[in-house]
Specification:
The protein is of the alpha/beta class. Helices cover about 30% and strands about 20% of the residues. The strands form 4 sheets. It has a 6-stranded mixed β-sheet. A 4-stranded antiparallel β-sheet has the order 2-8-7-4, with no helix packed on it. A 4-stranded parallel β-sheet has the order 11-10-9-12, with helices on both faces. A hairpin with a 5-residue loop joins strand 7 and strand 8. The longest helix has about 40 residues. It starts with about 20 loop residues before the first strand and ends in an 11-residue tail after the last helix. The mean pLDDT is about 95.
Length: about 475
């Protein structure tokens, strides 16, 4: 029986229209704009100046905190400007503008197609390469990969899970890399498995990707037969169910373990990485190639088959350039989404550029985007049945509208993964996700503020105690006669 998670979930039409489209290399644009914030955590600091000449793969941004990542130039050319530019959501973020001149790569990067299967036997050297090459999670959160591969003291990885579910409708880029780059993904898995102490590695793939399943199984079998360090890697076929690719849902499906509220995967012995991240790890460790490319799906029901694509793009490529390459915006499209229809975000600025985690350009029609008339909640409970986190969206919606912040926290609104299952199932067309998402952000701010205050109080108490201990001991005065 195919595995799946045990709580909630829905079954939208997968609409994998572009699954048969091989990966095409997108031409390099004349100018790129590289964001200094394309990872979870602190923004990178630019380390180049206007007028500098840069090569492909050269560092142009350094991390500014523990949770941060290096940023590299995806092209060779001249730095034209450094400053704020609007991203996909319309926020002003520091970008480095580079005018392309040729395609000269930095020294030390292996551009050959030769597969390197020997796993380096030096954990620190591996982690350094992953960090220095700016590898981040490519499943959506873009969490710096080297941090996730270093479990905190007292925690141990019992299973490495590679997420090949790609459960969002329409998206097919992960499917294509599993078909076309299967061996590199398996090598990446073996490298991460070694770093984590040799725990088993499971590659989870939904059943609607038969070519990818066959390719990954064949790659695992071949490498296990012909190279060292590949034992303990397996492919698990998962039931098609959304959101199968959610980190906590995938752990439930593979390990039958539940991550508690506010908990982390490592709390139950799991480390989850996307298959695209595994490919990036391979390129960083075995080829010394920074994360400057990724694969992106261009799709939508309003696009004919000849205009469906899976592109290998360089980060910093303007979305308008990609749209020009695929023949322009189709007449029937009224909205362009970055990501899938369930969790993706509408793009407010087509002059924005791709980042490391860009996964798709999805074109939607008016019929697909129109909001149906909202009715009254009939307490049917469908939203609660569908919630993969076991929450009660109808209750959270009511609490949020009444700004009952303590009650929202008590009912774990912060555990919402914003998957959209509640909105998808609501017969009254109540915009549950919109309301809950805002409330979740407000509650998380309150929690973080409380945690920061507690840390400050603890530090102040510690400093006072240290100051008291440093005071010279007072000599007792002689008793008066």
């Amino acid at each position: 029986m195919k595995k799946t998670f045990s709580i909630g979930g829905v079954h939208p039409n997968d609409s994998k229209i572009s699954s048969g489209c091989r990966i095409e290399v997108l031409p390099v644009p004349g100018t790129v704009y590289v964001s200094m914030l394309q990872h979870l955590g602190a923004m990178a600091n630019p380390v180049v100046a206007v007028g500098d000449k840069v090569k492909v793969g050269q560092v142009i941004g350094e991390p500014s905190g523990f949770i941060s990542a290096f940023v590299h130039s995806p092209v060779s050319g001249t730095v034209k400007s450094i400053g704020p530019r609007k991203d996909l959501a319309g926020w002003n973020i520091t970008h480095v503008e580079i005018e392309v001149e040729g395609d000269e790569w930095a020294e030390g990067i292996d551009l050959s197609d030769t597969l390197v299967t020997e796993i380096p036997q030096d954990t620190k050297a591996i982690l350094d390469k992953i960090k220095l090459n700016g590898v981040v999670g490519l499943g959506g959160a873009t969490f710096p990969a080297h941090v996730k591969l270093c479990p905190p003291p007292g925690k141990k990885a019992e299973c490495l899970i590679l997420n090949g579910a790609e459960c969002e409708p329409y998206l097919t880029s992960d499917n294509r890399i599993m078909i076309e780059r299967s061996k590199e993904i398996v090598v990446g898995a073996a490298i991460m498995k070694y770093v984590l102490g040799g725990c088993p590695a499971v590659i989870g793939i939904e059943e609607n990707k038969p070519e990818a399943i066959a390719a990954m199984k064949a790659a695992v079998a071949e490498l296990q037969a012909n190279a060292k360090g590949y034992d303990g890697i397996s492919v698990m076929v998962l039931k098609k169910k959304y959101p199968q690719g959610g980190e906590k849902q995938l752990i439930d499906a593979v390990m039958h373990r539940q991550v508690k509220s506010m908990g982390l995967p490592i709390d139950v012995g799991a480390v989850v990485q996307n298959v695209a991240t595994s490919l990036a790890v391979y390129e960083a460790v075995q080829k010394n190639k920074p994360l400057i490319t990724n694969t992106l799906t261009v799709t939508g029901d309003c696009l004919p088959m000849e205009r469906q694509h899976n592109y290998l793009f360089r980060i910093g490529t303007p979305l308008s350039f990609i749209i020009d390459q695929m023949g322009g915006i189709p007449e029937a499209a009224v909205k362009v989404v970055s990501g899938g229809p369930m969790m993706g975000k509408a793009i407010v600025n087509l002059d924005a550029t791709t980042v490391k985690g860009s996964s798709s350009l999805l074109f939607l029609t008016a019929a697909q985007t129109v909001r149906k008339e909202q009715g009254n909640c009939i307490r049917c409970g469908k939203c609660a049945e569908a919630c993969p986190m076991g929450l009660e969206p109808f209750l959270l919606n009511k609490l949020a509208k009444n700004r009952m912040m303590d009650e929202l926290e008590e009912n774990a609104v912060h555990d919402c993964i914003e998957c959209g299952c509640c909105l998808y199932t609501c017969p009254a067309n109540i915009p549950l996700l919109d309301v809950i998402r805002i409330a979740k952000g407000d509650v998380i701010k309150i929690i973080r503020g409380r945690q920061a205050a507690a840390r400050a109080a603890a530090e102040a108490a510690k400093a006072a105690e240290a100051a008291k201990a440093a005071e010279p001991a007072k000599v007792a005065e002689p008793a008066k006669k």
